[in-house]
User: Fold this.
Amino acid sequence: MTTVPSGTNLSGRDRGPEGLSVLIAPDKFKGSLTAPEVARGIAKGLQKAEPGIHTIELPVADGGDGTLDAFLANGYTAREIMVTGPDNDLQRSAIAIKDGTAVIETALTSGLAMRGDRTPNPLAATSRGVGDAILAALNAGANRIIIGLGGSACTDGGAGMLQALGVSLKDGAGAILYPGGISLLDLEHVDLSGLDPRMPDTEIILATDVTNPLLGPNGAAAVYGPQKGADKEDVRLLDWALSHFASKISLEAAHLPGAGAAGGIGFAALAVLGATARPGIELVLEMLDFETHLTGADLVITGEGRLDDQSFQGKAPTGVLAAAARRNIPAVAVCGSSLLTAEPRYPDFDAVHALTDIAPDVRTAISNAGPLLEKLATRINVRKLQPQPAAH
Assistant:
C-alpha cells in the first residue's frame, strides 16, 4: 500500500500500479480510538487485503470532542496552553494553529472530561477556559478562530468566557461575579468596554449541530443540564439565571439557533463576539479541503464508534457520505457497532462493517479495538464496490 499524505490529489498515472485510491475519513471511536488511529487501522487492513492500493488518511470530526485531533492530523500545529477548567482550576490544554486560523475544542477547555472523577457541580461550572483559549489564539496571531462546541461541563451562558476576554460582570454591590451559571442571578452590571480590542477584527466561527435556543424547554439548561449533573431544581435555577443574563445582554440573541450550544457559550459568542454558527461536519470538511481530496478517489471509507439513527442528524459519517454521493463515489462505513435498520436511506452506505461483527461482546470490541479494526478492514471488498461502467 502507498499511504498518501492528506493534501495530495490522486488522478491518472499518479494512482499507482493497482489504479485504486481510497479516501479514509472517519471520526473517532469514542472511548477507544482517536480519529487518526481509526484511519491508520483501516489503512493497515486495506494493505493486507490489497497490497499496492493507495490510501489518503483524512480524519474528520463534527465539532465535538475529537475536533482538535482531526485538525492536528491534517497539517495544523498544536500549541500547548493553560486554561481555567470548568471547576475554576488551572489545567493544561491545547489549541491548533495554521495560517492565521486557530481551532479550539470546548471539550478540552471547559469540558466534562476535564473534571475527572469529581462530583458534578453544574451550578458553578465555568466556561472561562474557552475565553483563555481565545486569548491564546489571539496571542499566537490568529485572526480566525473556530470553536468546536461540544462536551462542555458548564451552563453559564458563556459568562466565564466573556470575563476572560475582558467583559465586566458585577453584582449589585459592584463585586465581580463569581464563576458558574447560578451566579448570573446576581448580575446587575454588564460593561463590554473592556472586551479585548482584537476581537472586532477576529472572525469567530462556531462548529455545532446544536440548534437549541438558550432558554426554555428546548434550551441549554433543560436539554443539556442533566447530562452535566443538574437535577430538576438545578435546571429551573439555571434557566432562570440564563434568562436574567440574556435580559442584560440580548434577548434577541437568546432565540437564535445554536444559542443553547455548550451551555450557552453559543449565546455569548453570537451576541457579543459577533460569531457565526455553522454545521460542524460541514465546516470541518470545508476547512480540511475535503472536496479536493475526493478528486480521484474510487472509494470513501468513514465511520464512528456507533452508527444509529442519530448518525443521520449532522454527524461526521453522514456528512462524508453526502459529499461522496454528490460525486457518485461509493461510501463504506466502519464502526464499533451499528444499530442502523434495513430501511433504505438517501444517501445510503454501500456497506457497513462493525467491530461487533467479529467480536460480539462490546467490551471486547472496545478494549481490543485497534487490532479488530485492522482485521475488519481486510473484509472491505474494494474492487467489488467500484462503480460499474455505464452500458452503451
Notes: Confidence is low (pLDDT under 50) at residues 1-17, 388-392. Residues 232-249 form the longest helix (18 residues). The chain has two domains: 2-60+294-377, 67-281.
